[in-house]
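Possible race condition, two jobs.
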Amino acid sequence: MTVNPIISEKPFDFFWFIPTHGDGSYLGSEQQQRPPEFGYFKEIAQAVDRLGFPGVLLPTGQSCEDSWITATGLAAHTERLKYLVALRPGVVSPVFAARQTAALDRLSNGRLLLNVVVGGNPTELAGDGVFLPHDERYAQADEFLKIWRALVSGEQVNFDGKYYRVENGRLDLLPVQERPPLYFGGSSDAGQDLAAEQVDMYLTWGEPPALVAEKIASARRKAALKGRKLRFGIRLHFIVRETEEEAWAAADRLISRITDAQIENAQARFLKEMDSVGQRRMAELHGGRRDRLLVGPNLWAGVGLVRGGAGTALVGTPDQVADRIREYQDIGIDTVIGSGYPHLEEAYRVAELLFPKFGIGSRRIKPREDIANEFSVGFHGAERLQASS
């Protein structure tokens, strides 16, 4: 008797990640490392487009290839995949960003999504010419987005604010979409205030469900006071294997070459150099200790020992990981932005092992049951031979 797997009744989007800063099999090691090359990005994008992922996130920062240029190149080599690229208030002007938005949305035929990144590292921001303190960066972003939203909606803009002044600004060529959606992650009060006022999707890194629920409740309240509703998404790594033992062995292997000195240096940078509330919350989950990496059922913080930003992974069998995702769904999450090392291979594992638990389809051709080969057991050839004898 064949037992059908339990399929989640709650639909959600499962995005993947383009590692524009490089990829590899071991964190903290140059061995089996893959450099940030466009050819490799294209392999991942085409694979996830074929596997049924609806979109990909491209990161931003000094160590990354530019997300806009990379997405433009990848859009020409994919069919359905959407691209979540960084909108950087303070780094570029809102009018220039609006023109970029319209151009890439047209080039991709409406496959552009925008990730508003205010920035959480004053040292890196200073290198980009941004010197505002934490809360002021969000005030500047609020002005930026008001100008940007009006321009991409086809309005003529006259604006005189604290950070920007625009006279008779306009776009002669508009996006394909009425307005590309805005995604945003910010754990501070100032960040949540910006989300409540301006964005469509509020993102969180992979904290334990109880902490995520508190964050979502706070953001939802702030949005309601503005007469708005938010959608919610989560950024997580994945290590999914057929058995629990295989999954945890893969997790241990991923961090097996990280030294204590690397952990100490990374944690000092996260806590002392950065003013990101979300990054502090990530670091505090484990405190830089290898013996505190299990921060919830199947929720493992090993990636965050040396990686900034998203530092947790769901580790386990397809059933275990699916159960954890459903817990996040129950508190309001409807979008997952996943990743895994190496990103090409992990995309296949997630699609093949986890997607069936949620009824997420694949565009791959399945072997016919009446054909015998190394991936199926059929008798087509034998039957034809008997018929001819």
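Job #2 (started ~2 s after job #1):
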Amino acid sequence: MFVFQFTRVWIPDPDDVWRAAEITKDYKEGEPVLHLQLEDGTPLEYQVGPKSNTLPFLRNPDILVGENDLTALSYLHEPAVLHNLRVRFLESNHIYTYCGIVLVAINPYEQLQIYGEEVITAYSGQNMGDMDPHIFAVAEEAYKQMARYTCRNQSIIVSGESGAGKTVSAKYAMRFFATVGGSSRDANVEEKVLASNPIMEAIGNAKTTRNDNSSRFGKYIQIAFSRHYHIIGASMRTYLLEKSRVVFQVSPASPRLENGPGPR
């Protein structure tokens, strides 16, 4: 193994998770130290070996940073993915990025004006890679596949950590279907389906350290379409209820609502 001088790498950091660095001296396999320089000019001797750190991850060329599809990167690993998402979010305010057919979303914790009817119209009829990554592009792809392969069900899996925005993402997908596949009486299908959320949340949610209103169950939402691809109904089923965490409903006057976790 031989690593040349000026090679750009990522090294672990306790504060920033990953820090960018550059190798300042050629490295040969078996040497215990890798000579680096951080972006601020600070020199660093990075210990490597079987009992310490492995060789650091390589950085992507600057021309690839900010790509809207992670599979276009030369090196696809944790620091490369996190850096690309960070650049897209902080520099371009893009919360969506593709990774092949998967859509990666960053929760901005604020309302963005990218879900209006004009945006739905723009994505309707487009191929998934023709426009910037968006939840509407995923919904359009599912809708198009359903119309192309008659009577073949389509599924969109919305997954993420507590508080990541799964419920809101599902709502936007249903808004797209209600607009492109609904009529005036069906246009509020997502409101009708999500109106049942407060009832289920009162039974199956609990406060955690990361989310004040964390779902303790999954939701499987089914939207039914006619042969003309118009919405004719919707239903919701729950699964994987963590009964051990939902024992009783906390009294509104209970101090646990403010100072501690909810039902356990």
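Confidence is low (pLDDT under 50) at residues 256-264.
Logs attached separately.
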